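### Sample
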Amino acid sequence: MTHDEIATALAEFDARIANDTQADGPWQALQVLSQKLIGAKLFTIMTVDMKNELARREYTSDAESYPVSGTKPIHYDRWFDTVHKDRQSFVANTIADIATVFSDHETIWALGCGSVINIPVVIAGELLGTVNCLDVEHHYTPERVERSKLLAIPAKLAFLAASKAA
């Protein structure tokens, strides 16, 4: 991906987030940007409530397989340590690696996905949630992982814009 392609994708995100007034507009804008920058067959947004130790799916690109509903308990494992404690992206590039942390790995595999990157969104020292991109096995190469860092500021903006729209 060239610098011009990245600049164009970011400008398109900026225009969408500035003008879209739909409740899911910020998430849809971030989904399109994520697909352009790093790719994502499946895209979801999770928010976290650490006080109650719960996570909630706020947005999904596949409402049939991953609906926006309810909450699930937060599990304390290596994923938690990477994302919550270290505030780093979690990357798994095989379904076997995904299976070590996600109980829904069979659903992920059935959707044709075998790799994941979970990008933490932190504002004012608080982890608000994660941007979750899934694709085929071995998709999140070191180059794509590096490029995913370009999503940090747009993700923060999307979280803030979504809270304003709610």
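The two ends are 34 Å apart (CA to CA). This sample (GAF domain-containing protein) is used throughout the tutorial notebook.
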